[in-house]
Amino acid sequence: MNNFRKGKIFIYILILVGVCFMYPRTSLATPPQDLKLSYDAKSQTLAVTITHKSFFPSFHTNQKC
User: Fold this and answer.
1) SS3 for 25-55, per residue?
2) pLDDT by residue (tens digit) across 12-49?
3) How far apart, in whole angstroms, are the C-alpha atoms of residue 29 and residue 31?
């Protein structure tokens, strides 16, 4: 395979990757149903609870920031 052909294949791959980034896939996220905030002034802690329906509840975990 000569250098010209390798360069041509590289350009085609580069264009393909560029097109993939120009047209991103849409997200299949569900919107939240409820949002609750509670603030503890003594410990200066903000707790956020977000409730939403999920088709795959096993993929979700409780996260603390």
Assistant:
1) CCCCCCCCCEEEEEEECCCCEEEEEEECCCC
2) 999 998 887 877 666 667 788 889 999 999 999 999 98
3) 7
> What is the value of pTM for the model shown?
0.42
Would you state the torsion angle of the CA atoms of residues 43, 50, 62, 48, taken in this order, to the nearest 10 degrees? Answer: -10
Cβ-contact 47, 38 below 8 angstroms:
yes
Q: Quick check: 33 and 50 in contact, CB under 8 A?
A: no
- The DSSP bridge pattern shows strands 45-51 and 34-40 to be antiparallel
Token readout for 52 is 């939403």
